Amino acid sequence: MKAKELDEKFDRGEDITGYLDLDRARRPAQEPKRVNVDFPIWMVQSLDREAGRLGVTRQSIIKFWIAEKLKQVSGRPQGTPLHNRTPTN
Predict the structure, then answer these.
(1) For 33, what's the count of Cα atoms within 13 Å in the CB-facing half-sphere?
(2) pLDDT of residue 27
(3) Which of 1, 14, 24, 62 suits a disulfide with 9, CB 3.0-4.6 Å?
(4) pLDDT at 89
(5) pTM score, whole prediction
(6) Is the Cβ–Cβ distance between 81 and 28 less than 8 Å?
(7) Which is it for the CA torsion 29, 33, 38, 44, positive or negative?
(8) 78 Cα distance to chain centroid
C-alpha cells in the first residue's frame, strides 16, 4: 500500500493498525536515557515513604514529580519535546 492510500484511510477514520509494524514503532524524543543522580539519605528515605504510601516505585515517583515540575515551568503539554516549542515574543 502506498503512503497516500494509508493517509486517505486514516483521514477517513478507518482502522489502519493492521498496516503498521507496532513491534518496531518508536516515539521520537521519548526513548529512555539513563542518568545517575545522587540524593542525600533523608531524601531517599522520604521518597521511599511517599512511594510506598502511593504503591509505586521510587523511580516512578521521581519521574512523575520531575515531569510535573517541568510541565509547570515550561508551560508545554507533557510529552512535547522542548525543541518543538514555538518561541514566544
Answers:
(1) 5
(2) 79
(3) 14
(4) 41
(5) 0.54
(6) yes
(7) positive
(8) 7
Is-contact 47 65, C-beta < 8 A? Answer: no
Decide if 76 contacts 85 (C-beta within 8 A). Answer: yes
Max distance between CA atoms of the chain, in angstroms, equals: 58
For the chain, strand residue ranges (E) read none
List Cβ neighbours of 51 (8 Å cut-off, separation of 6 or more): 57, 58, 60, 61
Helix, strand, coil: what percent of the chain each, to 5? 55, 0, 45
pLDDT in tens, 35-80: 999 999 999 999 999 999 999 999 999 999 999 999 999 876 555 5
* Grid cell 543522580 in the structure block, residue: 37
